[in-house]
């Protein structure tokens, strides 16, 4: 019997620019579920969500710094297990 994987989540403000961010997250995390609410996009996935700078840049069509993520995020569930110039990882650290 395997233990259930604890889900992580990210809530983002709904905006034109953040739609590209959501598209990049979906492309890199096929297991992510996306729920749209008025003014908010809720993403959740089992275990971890990875945000790759290169994927976001491809969706936006411009350079993107991972620090810009702070302008998009409303709340999150999990921990920022990694955050550098190329990648952000939301996961539970045990």
TrEMBL record:
What keywords sit in the KW lines?
A: Monooxygenase, Oxidoreductase
Q: Does the keyword Oxidoreductase apply?
A: yes
What would you give as a GO molecular function for this chain, any one?
monooxygenase activity
* Designated name of the protein: Putative monooxygenase
* Protein family (similarity comment): Belongs to the TmoD/XamoD family.
Q: Which organism is it from?
A: Gordonia sihwensis NBRC 108236
């Amino acid at each position: 019997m395997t233990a259930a994987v604890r889900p992580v989540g990210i809530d983002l403000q709904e905006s034109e620019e953040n739609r590209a961010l959501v598209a990049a997250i979906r492309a890199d995390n096929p297991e992510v579920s996306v729920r749209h609410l008025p003014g908010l996009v809720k993403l959740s996935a089992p275990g971890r969500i990875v945000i790759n700078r290169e994927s976001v840049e491809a969706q936006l069509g411009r350079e993107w710094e991972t620090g810009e993520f702070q302008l998009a995020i409303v709340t999150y569930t999990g921990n920022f297990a990694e955050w550098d110039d190329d990648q952000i990882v939301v996961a539970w650290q045990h």
